[in-house]
Amino acid sequence: MDSSTRAASGLRERLGSAIFTRVAGPAGLENRARIHGRPGPRWFGPDRPIRTVHGDASMFIGGLRALLLQSLHPLAMAAVAAHSGYRGDPWGRLQRTSTFLAVTTYGAADDAQQAVDQVRAVHGRVRGTTSSGESYDAADPHLLGWVHVAEVESFLLAHQRYGEAPLDPAGYDGYIADTARVAEALGVTDPPRNRKQLAASLGTYRGELRPTEEAREAARFILLHPPLPWAARAPYALLAANCVASLPRWARTSLELPQLSGIAEACMAPTGRALTAAIRWAMTPPPPTVVNAQVPRDSGTFGVEDG
């Protein structure tokens, strides 16, 4: 291996490790070993679309988009603002979410069920009243349904735009059907199972969505003031810009985000594809050699990818 190859390999390892640690947390390596190494049946086989989507670096943009879109339901946003601690511990919240996605997507069936049971127990304790006097309950199937469809649409759209290998229409329908299994386990009633049903479900919530000051504050925190070192601010800004560009115009208006022209959006997309490709490169080890033949394949996204 020549010096330039060694330097590139070292850079890849450092970047990949830094991203993985941020997203998966201090227990990331241990969790990954258990998720992929523990024997037993899985909720989803290796050929299922959910593994393709959740294992791609496009999830970085899709995850940001989901947070912004979800914030536009005032009851969901009130619950997050009062109970999630997203300002005080944003990385912890991300790491818990990424681990949940990884366990339910790739892990043994009993581990997936345990993860769901833990989330349901947390939801059962999250109740309160908004500043306008509306009651919220995180275990409400209708509210859970909004969180689910906003997340699924965001992950799907990001994968269509920035995924390494976008799926065909049947594949994306299969992805939505896969996520419905997790949603039902969490308490969602009759989640959508294809793109037509997903669009219809999103439409039923449109009249309930409205901007609140809490939602706008969350957007400013997520997009403008992330707790990141300066070296990571520029790449994150590109992720955030592509996230904003992918939101529907009404959502951007509600959150007081910049409106981009069609030309600006078209120019933005290549930056998103380049950045997700760079993340994918950093988190995927080089082909095995005699020296590193036992190195496992790292994740392309939120934590752990199938080996």
From TrEMBL:
Presence of keyword Disulfide bond: no
Superkingdom, natural source: Bacteria
Entry's EC annotation: 1.-.-.-
Pfam family, one: MPAB_Lcp_cat
Transmembrane segments: none
Ranges for domain ER-bound oxygenase mpaB/mpaB'/Rubber oxygenase catalytic: 52-281
Top EC class, one word: oxidoreductase
Keywords linked to the UniProt accession: Oxidoreductase
InterPro entries: MPAB/Lcp_cat_dom (IPR018713)
Annotated coiled-coil segments of the chain: none
GO molecular function: oxidoreductase activity
PANTHER family in the cross-refs: BLR2777 PROTEIN, ER-BOUND OXYGENASE MPAB_MPAB'_RUBBER OXYGENASE CATALYTIC DOMAIN-CONTAINING PROTEIN
Protein name, per record: Oxygenase MpaB family protein
